[in-house]
């Protein structure tokens, strides 16, 4: 290359570079200036901000202590399903699973046989009431008799939605707890508008709304429920889902104070505790004898959120079910003694026939 040609060559490069320097930043700037205006406002589903927070994470795959899941559902499982279940339970330290969906009569017998019959130490089966003959006279008596028969056939508790005096007295006599699901989250009773914090869930499941034209109000249900707890002081009740007071722990505390026969599980309401880690910690320490571990819909990979919230002080982590909580949650690190009670000691106290020797002191 002679010197003249190389000068020309260099100047061509310089011009090109110069042009790029002038044009490119301008193009970049223009794009930057325009982007926010051009972009439409995302919908609530589209807006998925990635957290930039850098903080310590403890992903706990296995509970620190063996635990009892007081709130699970398995309808007519096959032997193969139960075998797989036990293998999965072992991976997360789930020692005893309580199946609330045992049914009654023949179905209960079959469920007990396939679960408890094959793994006596690993499963507890609760019976359910059949409402088929609800309108024929003497229903309460028949149900109480069926329950007695179910208990003889291996049922260790009752899962129920409604109030039946004779049945609850029978549970006290048989010394089995009643796991009771009354009401729904209070937001389901509120208008489905942009102020409703369960807006997404109600969009996905419109049938979960409880409009006043069709359903009794939240407060009425709770008044009836509290009346029921007071009326049967010898019956132990486990109110499912933090008794739907997870968003008002002070109120739940008052319910406990007034009713020594009332307990709760934390199934499917972990996000309520996780959004108030200080209050949740203090509440669980204060009422450590009244709260039980439960998960509700079984999915082996979702328990780790419970472990992480109960056992660590991790901050601002994503929840596993967006429709329950658009917010992130925080761990509230319970002391070991409290953790043991929530994980298994309270369930051992309430549910007859679980082998306590499988659990630490
Ligand atoms: Zn459930």
Overview of the molecule:
The chain is an alpha/beta fold. Helix content is 43%, strand content 9%. It contains 12 helices and 9 strands. It has helices at 3-38, 79-92, 105-115, 139-152, 165-174, 199-204, 218-231, 249-258, 270-274, 277-286, 303-311, 336-350, and strands spanning 67-72, 94-99, 123-125, 127-128, 158-160, 178-180, 237-239, 262-265, 291-292. The strands form 2 sheets. It has a 6-stranded parallel sheet. A 3-stranded parallel sheet has the order 1-2-3. Helix 4 links the parallel strand 4 (127-128) and strand 5 (158-160). Helix 4 (139-152) packs parallel to helix 5 (165-174). The longest helix is centred in the N-terminal third of the chain and has 36 residues, at 3-38. The model has no long low-confidence stretch (mean pLDDT 91).
Query: The biggest beta sheet, please?
Result: 6 strands, parallel
Q: Helix coverage percent of residues? A: 40-55%
Strand order of the largest sheet: 4-5-6-7-8-9
Question: Pairing-aware structural class of the strands and helices?
Answer: alpha/beta
Q: Give the overall average pLDDT.
A: 91
What's the Cα radius of gyration? 28 Å
**What oligomeric state do the depicted chains represent?**
single chain
SSE diagram, text form:
Layout: H1 3-38, E1 67-72, H2 79-92, E2 94-99, H3 105-115, E3 123-125, E4 127-128, H4 139-152, E5 158-160, H5 165-174, E6 178-180, H6 199-204, H7 218-231, E7 237-239, H8 249-258, E8 262-265, H9 270-274, H10 277-286, E9 291-292, H11 303-311, H12 336-350
Parallel strand pairs: 1-2, 2-3, 4-5, 5-6, 6-7, 7-8, 8-9
Bound molecules: zinc ion.
